[in-house]
Amino acid sequence: MNSTPSFLGRVQEICRDIDQSRTLEALYENLPHYLAKVGGTHTSDTSASVFITIVKYNIAGHTFQIANGTGKYAAAAGSMVLDGPILEHLSNAIRQRSNHYSRDAVTFCFPHPENFAILVYVELAQELDTGAQELLQFVNDKVVSSIRTHSLFKQTVRTGRAMVIALASLAEHKDQDTGDHIMRVAIMTDEIVQVLGELGYYAEKITPEFERHVSTASILHDVGKISISDSILKKPGKLDPEERKIIETHTLKGKKVLEKASRILDDYNYLLTLSCEIALHHHEHYNGQGYPAQIAGQDIPLSARIVGLVDVFDALTSERAYKKAWTDQEAIAYISEQAGKQFDPLVVEAFLKVMEYRRGIVLIQWTEELSVKVRSMDNDHRVLVGLINQLASAEKIGNRRVAESVLDELLNYAIDHFEREEQFLHKSGYPFSELVKHKLQHASFNETIQDIRWQYLHGFRPRINQEVLFFLRDWLSKHILVEDMKYAGLACAGN
Ligand SMILES: [Fe+2]
Ligand SMILES: [Fe+2]
Ligand SMILES: [Fe+2]
């Protein structure tokens, strides 16, 4: 008999554990440990062998890869389930979309609305009676509702961010050749905030709320440029003082737009508050010589001090119609020299550390050997190389938020680049059959990244592991050296 008070106690304990998981990733990582309590013989026995697997519904049949486990499955992460009776067990659970019981095992099945299920296989020390099985239905309900709550929250945050990116892109596209400036700013803002935290600076200002929102808020820093006329924004030569003044109003205009948005929300909205202060103050200088308010030092909101520096770094290291891109070293020298003048010295210190982290992890180095002799394509490839390195660095320092943003950016940039490249090939008279093959390679890369990102966002991949990073590095370098290099000749021939 299992449906004894002690079994009920175990079920209650498991439900409490589930409540305590703060994120989806934590829930999936810990679920095998929680459910191991079902397999043991008494309350504190958690030695049962358990594994978790995530399965997309597929009418053609299912394969099961172990995500993580306990007991004899503790070291089995990544391996496929091959044992016949266990495969049968898992298949039954997925077919019924509910728990499946046998004498010596139970497979929990937690269906997810997005066309997949999470299965947890637990080896039992003793058979579970129907009373125990009924009790375990509580566990199922708890897990399913917890997954739904975490997913909804995540979805809401990501929807907000996507809308912010769409809005900011409108302003950015007016400003021509800035590329993916806003996303780079968002990523580096997050990195600097993390390092400020590590250094113990501004601990009272860097609250979990600040950490959560500042990178998204930074995306809107130039939103006020929407209202600046193209004749000034896109003027090729130097601006006269009058025009400079007009450009400077983008700070006030941005703040106004965002203030208006924040009035729509009845409650205090931290994301919009941060966005307003960043839009208004990201051109202030630490010594009070910036604009528009000419405030100085700690009077400038911390968010704006961080974004102000990141914005300058990105502008310096990007190519513009009127200037070449500075090297990282040149930009670092300028920013260091401006510590205490244009920039907050503590933010400069954190920035230098971020650059040190980035330099420490170079998976793939851009070299002339990778040049396909088409300037725009080389630029694109350079960005992709940079993003793969950034992903590696985000993973190394364990910043999930940054890794998520880089992954989003990598996917978006790859899609855009492939489109540009395919158009270029089409116009250059690249042989049709070759173009088809080339396109297929692009499509399969996109699909793989999409899959990796899907797993990462749904919490099934606690980390982007080495295997994935090496895959990205090898794919890109091989693709450029073999496939893309085929059009290098065409371009040289003047097409
Ligand atoms: Fe600006
Ligand atoms: Fe290509
Ligand atoms: Fe390419």
Keywords:
495 residues; alpha+beta; Beta-Lactamase; Four Helix Bundle (Hemerythrin (Met), subunit A); 61% helix; binds fe (ii) ion
Q: What would your notes on this structure say?
A:
This protein is α+β, with helices and mostly antiparallel strands and 495 residues long. The protein has 3 domains: 5-151, 2-Layer Sandwich (Beta-Lactamase), CATH 3.30.450; 175-355, Hypothetical protein af1432; 361-495, Hemerythrin-like (Four Helix Bundle (Hemerythrin (Met), subunit A), Up-down Bundle), CATH 1.20.120.50. Helix content is 61%, strand content 6%. The protein has 18 helices and 5 strands. The chain has helices at 5-20, 24-39, 84-96, 130-174, 181-199, 208-218, 230-233, 241-248, 250-264, 270-281, 302-316, 328-337, 345-360, 375-396, 400-427, 432-457, 466-484, 486-492; strands at residues 50-56, 66-70, 100-101, 105-112, 116-123. It binds fe (ii) ion (3 copies). Residues 221-222, 250, 282-283 line the site of one fe (ii) ion.
Q: Over all CA atoms, what is the radius of gyration?
A: 27 Å
Number of helices: 18
- What's the average pLDDT? 89
Widest beta sheet: strand line-up:
2-1-5-4-3
What structural class is derived from the secondary structure elements?
alpha+beta
Uncertain segments are none
Just name the CATH architecture of the largest domain. Orthogonal Bundle
Name of the CATH superfamily of the largest domain: Hypothetical protein af1432
CATH topology category name of the largest domain = Hypothetical protein af1432
Total count of domains: 3
Let me know the number of strands. 5
Share of residues in strands: 5-15%
First-last Cα distance: 80 Å
SSE succession: HHEEHEEEHHHHHHHHHHHHHHH
